[in-house]
């Protein structure tokens, strides 16, 4: 199956994978591909951010022994429509995500949520992506769309969520996403 457009999935009530991306280099965006393979404890096969320890260059510079809590980046494709309403064009993969989802409010899920992707893959949410100024390289002013303040003054980060792979498998556009919430009191996602 090729890339699925938001229009293709508009009539599906269940959460789905809209697109998948990977890049073997440390570039901001990632090319959209027909499928990705997740490897437990590692990340996306062939992606520069895969590994057991941090792979993001700024984090490696601070402490290369930190565990990699950012193996797979997911973003809600509804964000693309939200920023389009403010004059920005963002396409799948351009924000550096590995998986764009649709029909799922990723940002509201608690730490430890497990997302079942396709037949066998599972990722566990570790936190929010903390957007950086590189986003303005995609479009000047886009960074302001990724960080805002709620009515109570708290910072709202919209650039997606980060996760670790707990079960491997192939993920493709159109795959179903099943949400498994963690037991106990939910803990809101924080930047990782």
TrEMBL record:
Pfam families: MOSC. Residues 30-180 form the MOSC domain. GO terms for molecular function: catalytic activity; molybdenum ion binding; pyridoxal phosphate binding. It comes from the Bacteria. This is MOSC domain-containing protein. It comes from Humibacter ginsenosidimutans.
């Amino acid at each position: 199956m090729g890339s699925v457009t938001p229009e293709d999935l508009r009539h599906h009530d269940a959460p789905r994978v809209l697109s998948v991306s990977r890049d073997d280099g440390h570039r901001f965006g990632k090319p959209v591909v027909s499928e990705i393979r997740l490897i437990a404890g590692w990340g996306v096969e062939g992606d520069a951010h895969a590994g057991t320890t941090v792979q993001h260059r700024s984090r490696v510079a601070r402490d290369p022994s930190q565990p990699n809590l950012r193996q797979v980046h997911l973003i809600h494709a509804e964000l693309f429509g939200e920023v389009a309403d403010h004059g920005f064009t963002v396409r799948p993969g351009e924000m550096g995500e590995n998986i764009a989802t649709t029909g799922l409010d990723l940002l509201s899920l608690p730490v430890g949520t497990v997302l079942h992707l396709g037949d066998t893959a599972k990722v566990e949410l570790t936190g929010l992506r903390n957007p950086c100024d590189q986003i303005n390289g995609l479009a000047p002013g886009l960074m302001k769309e990724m960080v805002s303040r709620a009515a109570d003054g708290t910072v709202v980060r919209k650039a997606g969520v980060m996760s670790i792979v707990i079960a491997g498998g192939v993920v493709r556009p159109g795959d179903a996403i099943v949400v498994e919430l963690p037991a106990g009191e939910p803990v809101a996602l924080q930047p990782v």
